[in-house]
Design brief:
Number of helices: 11
Oligomer: single chain
Structural class: mainly alpha
Order of helices and strands: HHHHHHHHHHH
Distance between the termini: 70 Å
Shape: elongated
Number of strands: 0
Length: 205
């Protein structure tokens, strides 16, 4: 074996060893995360649920993902509660249940979470898990919009333009489009840039 071949072989061995130890470290981190999840750490329960749901670094298992997401939600993890609602809506890892999804979104909305407020508004608007209630949809969107959510502001603007849950008020609609555009919400930016009539009259949600 010449000198160059020896160097190449040494590099190959070093690379293989590095990959081996990286995998060992990743496996150790995963086991530590799962252990903390089993001990009741809500953040680790949420992260474990995401891993099981997507099948990253671990075998995909939707029922297990649902189990961990439900546990994290029960421990007060807001993102987990919103994700749990999505699992109920899709029927992934559990039976599809729009009523339970509504309950989850209502829980996070009442904690001033923008994602919860907006999804709750959608549920009321589309009669998912409840009877259609445009007034409630409008109220939750307005709370999100006035709290600073750019998506909430743009959707509220659409409600004002279409008169959903409120009287038609294009002046208020323009105000909320402007607020959303200031935060670079893409549809609001396009609306203000082009004032495209199609954007003014398309049906919200």
């Amino acid at each position: 074996m010449n000198h160059l071949s020896a160097i190449i072989l040494l590099l190959a061995i070093s690379l293989a060893a590095a990959i081996y130890f990286i995998r060992l470290a990743a496996r150790a981190r995963l086991q530590k995360k799962l252990q903390k999840a089993q001990q009741g750490d809500p953040q680790m329960q949420y992260e474990a649920a995401v891993l099981y749901y997507h099948g990253k670094a671990i075998k995909k298992d939707w029922p297990k993902a649902f189990e961990y997401m439900a546990a994290a939600s029960a421990n007060g993890h807001i993102k987990a509660t919103n994700a749990l609602a999505a699992l109920y809506m899709a029927g992934h890892g559990t039976e599809k249940d729009e009523t339970k999804a509504l309950k989850c979104y209502k829980k996070t909305a009442q904690q001033n979470d923008f994602e919860g407020m907006i999804n709750l508004a959608v549920m009321y608007r589309q009669a998912l898990g409840t009877q259609q209630n445009d007034a409630q949809a409008f109220a939750w969107l307005k709370k999100a919009a006035d709290g600073g959510s750019p998506l909430g502001q743009r959707m509220l603007a659409e409600f004002y333009y279409a008169g959903i849950g409120t009287e038609i008020d294009k002046q208020q609609g323009l105000k909320y489009y402007a607020l959303a555009a200031a935060q670079k919400e893409p549809i609001a930016v396009k609306f203000l840039k082009y004032r495209d009539p199609r954007l003014q009259h398309h049906g919200p949600m």
